[in-house]
Design a protein that fits this description.
about 260 residues; mainly beta; 2 domains; 21 strands
């Protein structure tokens, strides 16, 4: 059985829609542009689909050095070349970490605030920012962006297929917000892996991913579907948490492509 990369995603703005791509570049933070932007409230506290499910209706991608955000059929842009000239910084918080982030002053803040029915402000993590990954699972120097805690999330198609089968209907892998989706392995085989190699890049699988309400949100309507959590609780509860997928740290930079072969170490 050959394990391959079947899907790749990156998420420019934390908790907005991701972008499916055929290849992705890994930089020091993880997939290039992945969660380098984030929405915060007036106190600088991060906002996600946990508090605001409608965020999963907002599209985000980077194209031609421009951040494109789509809201109800309208598209708004942020020129990435102009970000260094935006010199307003403030401390923002994501979980227990405080990061000095660059605030993006744009009409998108007004539009998103109206759509989400709460005040939000877009911020950006500069290239020279270093957010250390939890040292219980990482080495000094390992870093991540505004992701919940790790540079990458890996899950297998078979794992999501297993949950879909138990649920009695298909649930999209996008609900689980992975960066790398793998085919050709058994359901939850990734639980047993410690290290994999893809296109000569090594990945340490350091911690199962604890799941919150986000996978229960319908990606088209934002409605909560409690039966999704009930299935995960029945089949994926480990201690007090529900685990699906593996958080990973990459050892080097480079490119990943659809169809790349995965080697288990």
């Amino acid at each position: 059985m050959t394990i391959k990369v079947s899907q790749l995603f990156y998420y420019p703005v934390k908790s907005l829609k991701g972008q499916s791509v055929e290849r992705v570049q890994l930089d020091a933070f993880g997939p290039k542009w992945d969660r380098r932007f984030m929405l915060v409230d007036d106190n600088g506290r991060f906002i996600t689909q946990r508090q605001c499910p409608k965020m999963n209706q907002v599209g985000a991608q980077v194209h031609d050095n421009t951040l494109l955000i789509s809201v109800e059929g309208q598209q708004y842009t942020v020129n990435l070349n102009l970000i260094p000239s935006m010199d307003e910084f403030r401390d923002v918080r994501v979980w227990d970490d405080t990061i000095n982030a660059r605030m993006i002053r744009s009409e998108i803040n007004t539009r998103l605030s109206a759509f989400l029915k709460r005040t939000v402000n877009l911020c950006f993590m500069d290239d020279d920012t270093h957010r250390q990954v939890d040292l219980d699972f990482a080495n000094v120097g390992d870093q991540t962006s505004f992701a919940d805690g790790f540079p990458l999330l890996i899950v297998s198609e078979a794992s999501i297929g297993f949950l879909s089968n138990k649920l009695g209907r298909d649930i999209s892998v996008e609900r689980f917000r992975p960066n790398i989706v793998l085919s050709g392995c058994d359901a939850f085989a990734e639980d047993e892996w410690k290290k994999i190699t893809i296109n000569q890049i090594e990945f340490d699988l350091v911690k199962p991913c604890s799941r919150c309400v986000i996978p229960t949100l319908d990606i088209n309507s934002s409605e909560k579907q409690p039966d999704v959590m009930q299935v995960m609780l029945k089949y994926r509860k480990q201690g007090k948490n529900v685990m699906v997928g593996q958080n990973a740290i990459h050892s080097s930079q480079g490119w990943l492509n659809l169809g790349d072969t995965v080697t288990l170490s």
